[in-house]
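Lab channel / #folding
Pinned by the channel admin:
"Please post every new chain as: sequence first, then the structure tokens as a reply. Keep commentary short and put observations after the output so the thread stays searchable."

First post following the new format, from NK:
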Amino acid sequence: MPLRTIAIASAIFLGTIGAAMAQERIKISSEWGAVTAVLADNAASKALLGMLPLIIPMTDHLRQEKTGSLPSGLPPAARQRAFKNGTIGLWGPDHFVVYYRDGQVPQPGIVILGEVTGGASLFDREGPVSVRVERAD
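Reply from TO:
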């Protein structure tokens, strides 16, 4: 393989890695501890970044998720029904959700905002909690 072809292929490969590594991350913290999440590449996640930092009072819902309202709605994006421990989603235009168990929601589904690195079991506790959502360092 000619050296020029190898150089071009290497540049393309490294450019792809750089783009993947540039994914936006957020930190979600509370009195219980903190988790970091990688955001999905969609309009809703980008709009969420523009709102940060936020304090969101959250309540437990169905012993599978913590939910709370954002100050305003986010743009629509593709929805899905399945979620897993660590999924960060949007139910309706302004309802922020952190799932700490696996499951499914009814139609129309949730907008996936991102994924907590290592899961969100930290939030598997009864009762309300206030979280601070901000860009991760």
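NK: The chain is about 20% helix and 40% strand.
TO: also worth noting, The CA atoms of residues 50 and 135 lie 10 Å apart.
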